[in-house]
Amino acid sequence: MHMNLVPAPVLSSQVNKMFGIVVVGVGIAGLARIRDLMNPIPSSPSEHLKLLGFVSRRSFGSINEAKQISLEDALRSEEIHAAFISTENRSHEETIRMFLEAGKHVLVEYPMALSAKASHELWEMAEQKGKVLHVEHIELLTEEYKQLKKEVVGKNLVKGVLHFTGSVLDETKAGFPAFSGIARLTWLIDLFGDLTVTSASREEQKDKNYSRMTVHFQTADKKPLTWIEERGPGMRREKKINFCFTSGCMENLPQAPRSAVGLFMQDQNLFAKKLLGQVSKEELAAEKWRILRCLDLAGMIQQQCEQPEKICS
């Protein structure tokens, strides 16, 4: 299927341009963003980004010399060219929409939105306005993942399981597990190509704050993959894999040293490269497909999990 791709919105003549940035939301990710914006790696694309302030519902005044500004001022300011959105998941959609409407570029932490429909609308809006909409997926930037991908490439999958465990999330803020856990889905799509949902179910013990979502997929070659997303009090944050190939099984994630460049910094450099027009149309198109496809699948998974129980004979 050939899509008409919108040309990269930013011209290479902007090589010397500085982009004013506002960070919206100062949780763990927002604070990491402020730190990295204030300490760009010399001669990296991030040197073209200048932090002009941050927005928070809480009152801080300033953080590390970054000053707090109102949302209205951030949207109105002609000096601010882009927003880094690090709020809770449920407010991503509304915040992205406001900044795109104000003519700003956007970097947002995953998931971009908590419905596939909203995600497609936002992407279309960014393209119509000629703005960069960049969704952070630092799970693809870890050394562990890069090594895993190298080891998987070229192998023929027979079957596989990716099992994630973690502590309890407030779903009213984080969204349904297929969205809050979309980093796992992103791994599977990036490793094994397009997937089809064959079934999805969810077990909940609300009194114990426990949730386990199980999703069965098929690859394009009709090979089975399973994703389990399990959360409960005191559960360790951990990913386990069991990928079986015609050549043998992988049961452990590869050990890899940490990169010298932090994950948020790597992501920030990628966003700056997009602003500078230094990312190819092919790469942008592949990334758009992956992000929207994962969100479409997350929507299908949620729909299947929330259907009333069918009586199976």
Compact overview of the structure:
It is built from 10 helices and 13 strands.
As a percent range, the share of strand residues is 25-35%
Order of helices and strands: EHEEEHEHEHEHEHHHEEEEEHH
Number of strands: 13
Q: Give the N-to-C terminal Cα separation.
A: 39 Å
Q: What portion of residues is helical? A: 25-40%
- Which structural class fits the helix and strand makeup? alpha/beta
Largest sheet data: 6 strands, mixed
Low-confidence stretches: none
**What oligomeric state do the depicted chains represent?**
single chain
Radius of gyration: 20 Å
The 3D shape can be described as globular
Number of helices: 10
Q: Largest sheet, order of strands side by side? A: 9-10-11-8-12-13
Mean pLDDT: 94
Helix/strand layout:
Elements: E1 19-24, H1 28-38, E2 49-55, E3 62-63, E4 66-67, H2 71-76, E5 82-85, H3 92-101, E6 105-109, H4 116-129, E7 133-136, H5 143-152, E8 157-166, H6 171-174, H7 177-180, H8 182-192, E9 195-205, E10 210-219, E11 224-231, E12 238-245, E13 248-250, H9 263-275, H10 281-306
Helix pairs in contact: 3-4, 4-10, 8-10
What does this protein look like?
With 313 residues, this protein is α/β, with parallel strands linked by helices. The protein has ten helices and 13 strands. The protein has helices at 28-38, 71-76, 92-101, 116-129, 143-152, 171-174, 177-180, 182-192, 263-275, 281-306; strands at 19-24, 49-55, 62-63, 66-67, 82-85, 105-109, 133-136, 157-166, 195-205, 210-219, 224-231, 238-245, 248-250. The strands form three sheets. The chain has a six-stranded mixed beta sheet. β12 and β13 (248-250) form a beta hairpin. α3 (92-101) runs parallel beside α4, α4 packs antiparallel against α10 and α8 (182-192) packs across α10. It is globular, with a radius of gyration of 20 Å. The model has no long low-confidence stretch (mean pLDDT 94).
